[in-house]
Amino acid sequence: MFRVLSWSSCHSTTWLRLLTILWVGLSPCSSVHQHSHPHSIKIPGDITLGGLFPVHARGHAGVPCGEIKKEKGIHRLEAMMYALDQINSDPELLPNITLGARILDTCSRDTYALEQSLTFVQALIQKDTSDIRCSNGEQPIIRKPERVVGVIGASGSSVSIMVANVLRLFEIPQISYASTAPELSDNNRYDFFSRVVPPDSYQAQAMVDIVKALGWNYVSTLASEGNYGESGVDAFVQISREAGGLCIAQSLKIPREPKPGEFDKIIKRLMETPNARGVIIFAHEDDIKQVLEAAKKSNLTGQFKFVGSDSWGAKSSPILDQEEVAEGAVTILPKRASIDEERISRDSHYEQEGKVQFVIDAVYAMAHALHNMHQDLCPGAMGVCDKMDPVEGRLLLSYIHSVNFNGSAGTAVLFNENGDAPGRYDIFQYQMTNTSNPGYRVIGQWTNNLRLNVEEMQWTGGSRQIPDSVCSFPCRSGERKKMVKGVPCCWHCELCDGYQFQADEFNCEMCPFDMRPTLNRTACRPTPIIKLEWHSPWAVIPLFLAILGILATLSVIITFIRFNDTPIVRAAGRELSYVLLTGIFLIYFITFLMIAEPGTVVCAFRRLLLGLGMCITYSAMLTKTNRIYRIFEQGKKSVTPPKFISPTSQLMITFILISVQVVGVFIWFGVMPPHTIVDYDEQRPPNPELARGILKCDIADLSLICCLSYSILLMVTCTVYAVKSRGVPETFNEAKPIGFTMYTTCIVWLAFVPIFFGTAQSTEKMFIQTTTLTVSMSLSASVSLGMLYIPKVYVIILHPEQNVQKRKRSFKAVVQAATMSSRLSQKSINDKQNGETKIEPDRTQ
């Protein structure tokens, strides 16, 4: 710190001296020696160091050198002279030894620098002067050129590469103060090259870390054509590829001699990938300035967020008059002397002191190496001893790689096995708001790892929100990434549809059958379980019909019980009537079991009563119609009554028919005990939010049909007998009401089948089927009740006189009526044998 400030304080006094030296060096009236080394400075000393500085810019139109470069040239050259003065006046460092210098101008051109650097190796080239004579014939006195033990420089990487190829041939160590090309770290090709600045590979690593810290994964790169820009971008791309998670949208190159409109084309190409707002730029100052100008010209202020290398650093020249476009730019510079933020302003003082700092460190590194070498080879000797005359270059190189001292910035100066300095960088951001003066602000450091103060960063308009520079934005919850082939940072987001959930970043998987995805589709949740509720519209109608039916059935039963011994009740066959009414009651009652919450007991009663009610009803009706049919058929043939027509026999026949159903149900119980299941398939629509699991008894549709098939068989058989008995006089039987009942019932059940099975794809299949089944059963029961018993109740209650007059028709009366009718026929005996006797109704009865 002290040395840097000392250099700053003496800057004005030494500037005049330097101009005088340069003028002498460039004057045509200079000495013969100076004429042999144009654009050079000679400082005598015991040990001579070489120096290479871009005092002039590159010339044009065939002229090697152009205008004088104040910052990169004069200031750096002056810094070397200042460092030599400090070392020569330091009693502790190289005591009694004076360091001299031969400083050359590279004119910022590699080929010109190569020519100049030949001066450093002249003393090592053996020349045969035996055939040279003066005009008087005497041997000439040729001044031996000074021997350069080491070279400080150069600035540009391309210049250092060219010079290093020559110096290594003569084993002259070289320490650069500004060359950062990664290829100079190749110890096989540039083994005599060292530098006090870190290579661009470190810088590229730091820039990769910055990009990742900002959350960017899709950026473009922009490089000036040449070693610095191209190698810097190559290093960035290589490191980003190794690190992963960072993709390069475009890698553009700025030509050495850009044509008019070239930078407009570059901006246009950058806009081909508008999501890549981050632009990594390794370019020269002039190229940076023109890129900013082109962006401003295209009205793209704020579109691009630049991350600049040390060639941008904290310089004001690249952003002059382009501050709005450069706002938010993040730049990087090798770590330098600590200076107050007020000094980091538009005068670029910080940048200038950074340049001279590394020049001073390079000179001191060479001095410390010579000092350590002198202590080892010349212990106690005053001045240069014989062992150091001449200085062996390879040995000096080993001492250079071993130095370790605190440099002008207060940080350690040392080299690794490749001659590179450790990577230490300050990170800046150009800010225009919320600062006392618009300018660069230190926002972090990088020393093998990044320390970035994101909260201190500002972007366009003073925003604190970090802008995006990503190829694809993160997928929302429930979406998987479908990667774009060949671009690992780009993807399309695809929704996990249906019953899929997001298993991981790239895959969707199906939820288990009893689950459905959550709303954000990141996991699965249990599917809600439902059942047919009492208040459901699907339950209200069957319940209403069942209640009405039960009330009507109970009314009939009560009426029959009350008038149990009356002729009408006896004529109706009261024993079978009670059985039939019981079946009708069970048909209505099953509605409540079908709607009740399924359980083991409920399911067992469903199995038992579902077919039993119909079986009882149709068994009784079948027995009735069969009895009537047999009586009249037998009466046509003889006066002998048919068998099994007594009430007891009729009950036995009915119970036998019923027992078939009961036995079948109990066999079903044994084969498959009743239990409940949750059916997740019936109500599983495309929208999983509507999915429901239905709690129900384990009765398949086929099992249900099998359970009802026996009752249907009884119903069909009963219908057949009703058809056969349709000719029997209505005054003697119930055949016609039973027939009408069976015809209606068949129609109801024929309608039931397609409705029941036509709901297979309905989301409310179970509810519809339950409603259809219960309504169909209730309707058939209602028809039976209405046709067979409601008229009788009507007569019993409203016309009691008919109840007294009516009497039960016995089998003898029926036979008598048949006999009387047959006597009217001329061929009664023959008619009886042929079975054609017709029984006329007894109108007198």
Automatic annotation (TrEMBL):
Q: What family is it from?
A: Belongs to the G-protein coupled receptor 3 family.
Keyword match Protein biosynthesis: no
CC terms in the record's Gene Ontology section: plasma membrane
Q: Where is coiled-coil annotated?
A: none
The organism sits in which domain of life? Eukaryota
- According to UniProt, the name of this protein is Glutamate receptor, metabotropic 6a
Report the Pfam families cross-referenced here.
Answer: 7tm_3 (PF00003), ANF_receptor (PF01094), NCD3G (PF07562)
List UniProt keywords, sorted A-Z.
Cell membrane, Disulfide bond, G-protein coupled receptor, Glycoprotein, Membrane, Receptor, Signal, Transducer, Transmembrane, Transmembrane helix
| Entry's localization field | Cell membrane
Give the chief site where it resides.
Answer: membrane
* Species name: Cyprinus carpio (Common carp)
Q: Which residues cross the membrane?
A: 538-564, 576-596, 608-629, 650-671, 702-723, 735-757, 777-799
Compositionally biased residues, Basic and acidic residues: 829-845
- What gene codes for this chain? LOC109045602
Topology versus the membrane, per the UniProt entry? Multi-pass membrane protein
Instruction: Return the CDD domains for the record.
Output: 7tmC_mGluR_group3, PBP1_mGluR_groupIII
